[in-house]
Every structure is written in structure tokens, then in C-alpha cells.
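Internal ticket #5521
Category: modeling
Description: The requester needs a full-assembly model to guide mutagenesis choices. All entity lines are attached below as received. Residue total reported by intake: 179.
Assigned to: D.W.
Attached entities:
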Amino acid sequence: MEKTLNGAKLEVVQGDITQSAMACIVNAANSSLLGGGGVDGAIHRAGGRRILDECVRIRSERGGCPVGEAVITTGGNLKAKHVIHTVGPVWNGGKKGEAEKLGNCYRSALRLAEQHGIASISFPNISTGIYGYPKDEAAEVAIGAVTGVLARKHGFERIQFVCFDFENYDLYVERVGEL
Ligand code: AR6
């Protein structure tokens, strides 16, 4: 499923983000930047040691990555040239600023991508696994944040939501279809 918004293709696909052929993929990391389970584990496994080496260097320089912010590394052995690591919020009932923090993840990642001249980028469904964010609410925030960026002047050609589980895929197909 895809839509064209202000000159960019917004795509919804089902699959494994480590196989993405976009210039950059986004990782749902944690503040330590030292890896973990879920998509984070998959990206580090597929991308190899160079990604972790750069994460360790960034961590030693600035003490990790706060929730809602983003850092960039090499894509290592991935097809993607870069990985942007962002840290989603842990779901805590919805009244602890979770939506703002989750939206900030998408906005921070896109800002960093533009600063690096990246025109194509794949996002996973940040916070909807181990961090427990309800999938329908997370989809609304994610799509809102990305379409907000695309509504302004931007340098993107393709932005992809890569949904691993079919619950997320169906939610995104429905919501992006309504845009
Ligand atoms: N490709 C695309 N999406 C994936 C993949 C994959 N290969 N594997 C899982 N997902 P999660 P979080 C989806 O738990 O909730 C880590 O330990 C998955 O179906 O990876 O942000 C970090 O180090 C779900 O929809 O990330 C943190 O400690 C989505 O990715 C913590 O988990 C996010 O699930 C972050 O938790």
C-alpha cells in the first residue's frame, strides 16, 4: 500500500526491516544504545559489529540517547547505509507524555535523516513490542508525526512503515489508506 504526499511516497509493507533496501533504517533502541531484543537485536545481529562499535562511541561521548531523541550510525553489513537509533517511551498508561515522546522519535529521526541528506527511510513500529505501547494508538501517533513532516518542505522521496506483525500491518494499511 502506498500514498504520495507532497512529493514523497509513504509506504506500508509487511516484513523484516533488516532486509530493507532503503538508504536508512530506524532502530527502536533503548537509552543505553548497547542493543537488546526485538528489532534492536535483529538489527545488531544482521548489521554486525561496526554498528555496536559506533553506538559504544556515541554512548561514551554523550552518555546514550534520551527517549524521543535519535542518533545515527553506519548500516554495517545491512543493505541500508545508515541506521538511525531512536528510543521510544515505555507505555505507562498514556498519561505520562507517551504520545508526545513517541511522536518525537519519528520527528527526531526524520530531522537527523534530512541533515544527512537521506531521502529514503524505513521505520519499525516503535514501542509496540517490549515497551507495550497499544498498537492502534502508536499507529495514530506515528502516522501523524510523519505526515506532519511531509506536509512541510522536505527532502524525502520514500518513507516506509515496515510492520513485522500483521496486527500492525492491518492497522497501518487502514489508516494510511484513509489519508
Ligand atoms: N523488523 C521489523 N519490525 C520488527 C522486527 C524486525 N526484524 N522485529 C520486531 N519488530 P520491539 P520496543 C517489531 O520490542 O517496543 C529492545 O530490547 C515488533 O513486532 O523491538 O520499542 C530495545 O533494546 C514491534 O511491533 O521495540 C529496547 O529495550 C516493533 O518492532 C526495547 O526492546 C517494536 O518492538 C524497545 O521496545
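Resolution: model delivered.
Comment from assignee: The mean pLDDT is 98.
Ticket closed.
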